[in-house]
């Protein structure tokens, strides 16, 4: 049985056992949306839609698109190739307060969450062509539920749309606290970061500006059909136990959630004076309130591919839908784009006098209007049990909010709305009874205030009114209750009364739960068993009581009004209690978390971290030999029929070995199937331990670990520690963190010492293994014995950033790059930066050479210093990068660019004019990471031969009884291994299949065939090559390093060769950084690239030179103690074969600045000395006998308004690979008069050639040096791939 299959079984079992919602985010690639267009094939097929939409998805989108049209698309913006659906939503505009013009707000990015809900239904893939609409395009008044979100029809009208406004500080609130929604938006009482309507404050959250949130219904009525968007969909209703179900006869499909970010923060300087007063934003349909959020979807999915994702219980979360195990169809390349032209030809960008479609602006100060912009009818929101009839939302009651007294709790319905009719743009009626709730009373002491006037909700006219859609008469009845508010006043000289204690951080317990502390939360939610259940006004008591009733062992509150349940944290980061300081909305004396801060309560008062599925599967495999004996000898499978052999291994491992026990609720059937046999299993486990001559569980654990490493050929690696010279020195760390440790002379001796002791490991019990070694290749690097027993992450040096845990091989790229801040082009780019180890290593190297980088800039004016530009396109990983940079102390000269794709960075941008070095470490297969390519043998217990098998008797090997044979059991009790890749496999792509590969970002992919492996490596190599070629374009770059943590030649030598043979490299003079020219530590590293992998790139000498320039490392027992890695350096040859300077443009007819740099205009065109006009260099022959360079300017007859060069849609000049402008067809260029510069240029050329002949030119002394061959045989040549 393959380890990958076992892992998949565990994932599926875990998801099913937890009975909870899972999700995966659909991510889009490319530089923007598919198109921005007045097209809506759902609401306005065949004609221009009423307002502008921003569209994502498949290129088959158009005015009349069907599911089949989308399925036939040539490309899609979605990462999974199998998803050719269309997703669209209204475009956001900014109304300039100064002159009233309108302009599009920059579309930042969007995600589509695919939620797979906890349900008693079978979730099915979207049928091809299914049309879904959500929201209400005509809404200009507040929704009936106020600012809160509601997706459960049984709890009142559905409210699927909100705006989220991430902010660093919520004081003042994003929405006015006393707003009734008529002239301003309303905040969500459960989440102060969200609400309805446009916020009146700036959304300045890190990498997260203003966001449109929209949920879609997930119940499909096949009786209504694919295209009846008004009646074919509804939201599911609660079925109890945290599950939601669809009506009988309806189909449960994935629950979509649009998350759309708009870069509103960028516009802040232009509307800052409006903060707290009004919003300058307008939806494309003319809505100035923000209430009319809506969105559309047409499915173009390959149904089999989506169903496979559903059936695999994919819970990839923020790693992305494209990371789901066994994804069919492949993944789109990030370096590509998918865009189309809008079929409606009109001006939609720039400064506009009116909105596209001529929609009037309505709502709030502009008046309600007619709901402008056309738009779509809202979808049904609550189907009855057996009929597709659905109800529109109810009209809101008049607000009871007042400015001074505290507002009463939000209105809640006492009964469900009765369905009346569908559609109607939100103007339908409900027959509904709603009661307001009295405000909680406060105790007055000396001077009670007189009660304020009673507040009542008005009674609408009880006369029946005709329904505009059905023509029926309905009666709306409102009941009111008097709401009294009292004020507590303290006066006089007496002591203030002691308030009655309530549960808070200062309390030891809430019920049976104890306070565990304040913990950092994230967008992925660290406590995710149940997220934000609708419990009304939240307090710690309310949240804990609810979570306990659902069988969870942990509960957490956040943002003053959110509740989260679970059993463990996905990430444990304890923070100061002061960050959990928001008052609970349901209990004034309590504190319910804070912004991304969770007040956590658990049954034990301690925190349990969630184990990764991969780690659990791996550990279970290690113990399977022992556990097989336990299961068979106990007769477990003969008694518990629900248990399969794989499940029995997993559950007995958790029960007998894991410190945290079985990670299932106590009432869960699978857990009970183990615990019923507690005594017998424990007894058999003890016997198994004694048979192995182990006197304790700790001794058995060490023996199992040693056998695992030996059987899998896993080498013991040291723990590598890089001393961060921005904050400390090696000497300082030897006298503090490693004081008293034994210093060994070599890494091999350190590993030899650890290896000889691993079988009888005594980790942490004495100082025997407190040994280190100072590395001889990388400065400031220390190897620490893996048996030291010291958790370095808990040391002061680690927490303060003085030491950084970084594998030795990971230090190669920055060290090989050898950046020099004192050079003319001293800036550095780290193209793929997160998590930040290499970025901070670069910073350390730069600061060692220029200590002024650490200056705070006080006193004398600082001179110009180098900068590091760190790019990370994944915004979540970018947060880790920024944290790493701050801890390391390099924030003063490191510019973090979150969410920026390096491939979209313009090399000619003025900001990067001084970039002289680039470090490229792109995503790769991760095949070199320690432990990724091996797995232990898996031993499965045999099922009982028959139902009468007695307990304690070993089961037969055939499984011949009535019990069905487990599909994952091999039937003959043979053990199997997860396939590993040999060197020949790497070369030929013929690895054992199926296999599991995990890339360096931790994303898992199951490969089913050799073709899948080849395709995966090919796709990665294409992206890696694009990144390298893009780096070649930076005009002043002189050094580049390219690295991967892969051992495949396809990602390594082959990419290097392709890059060197590209036209960009040839024109720019890029060469391999020869071994002789590398820094000492890298020059002396004896494991080089594969000559065989470089064959075919030229002659044998060239192949060997390139291979020698490449640096490799392998995860082997070779005494080096590093992971598999590859790095190659590139340098720009400053002289071409004819002697002409290829970089230092120190001559010629162009105007230069004080530093000798050519003066260019905004498009990068050089300025001509003789005319002062733009120049275009067509030919520069450097031969002595040739004429001088011919420089051309546009002839007057061909110089159109925008010049003679081809331009793109945004007016930018289109350039070739080297950045030179492209001439328009038919344009004529005339030769410029440069006679004065010709003679000077010729004279300088002759002088340079004479210098070169004497050995003093750009050839340099290094060209005379020969690399000494020490005669050592390169044992790695045969494993070059």
UniProtKB/TrEMBL annotation:
**Ranges of biased composition (kind: Low complexity):** 438-447, 474-490
What is the protein's name according to its record?
WSC domain-containing protein
PROSITE patterns, per this entry?
A: SAM_MT_RSMB_NOP, WSC
Q: Which organism is it from?
A: Rhypophila decipiens
Which UniProt keywords are given for this protein, alphabetically ordered?
A: Methyltransferase, RNA-binding, S-adenosyl-L-methionine, Signal, Transferase
Question: Biased-composition ranges for Pro residues?
Answer: 377-412, 448-467
Extent of Acidic residues compositional bias: 1178-1187, 1266-1281
Which GO annotations describe the biological process of this protein?
Answer: RNA methylation
Q: Which family does it belong to?
A: Belongs to the class I-like SAM-binding methyltransferase superfamily. RsmB/NOP family.
Keyword DNA damage annotated: no
Which stretches does the entry tag as region Disordered? 365-509, 940-1007, 1162-1189, 1221-1281
- Give start and end of each WSC domain: 512-604
Feature: compositional bias, Gly residues: 366-376
**What does the entry list as the binding residues for S-adenosyl-L-methionine?**
832-838, 872, 901, 921
Signal sequence interval, chain numbering: 1-16
Write down the superkingdom of origin: Eukaryota
What residues make up the catalytic site? 1045
- Per its UniProt record, what InterPro entries does this chain match? DUF1996 (IPR018535), MeTrfase_RsmB-F_NOP2_cat (IPR049560), MeTrfase_RsmB-F_NOP2_dom (IPR001678), NSUN5_7_fdxn-like (IPR049561), NSUN5_RCM1_N (IPR048889), RCMT (IPR023267), SAM-dependent_MTases_sf (IPR029063), WSC_carb-bd (IPR002889)
- Residue ranges annotated as compositionally biased, kind Polar residues, are 970-993
| Pfam families reported in the protein's UniProt record | DUF1996, Methyltr_RsmB-F, NSUN5_fdxn-like, NSUN5_N, WSC
Enumerate composition-biased segments (Basic and acidic residues).
1227-1241
Question: Could you tell me which Gene3D superfamilies the record lists for this protein?
Answer: Sun protein, domain 3 (3.30.70.1170), Vaccinia Virus protein VP39 (3.40.50.150)
Which Gene Ontology molecular function entries are recorded, alphabetically? Answer: RNA binding; RNA methyltransferase activity
Where is this chain compositionally biased, Basic residues type? 1242-1255
Q: Residue limits of the SAM-dependent MTase RsmB/NOP-type domain?
A: 709-1133
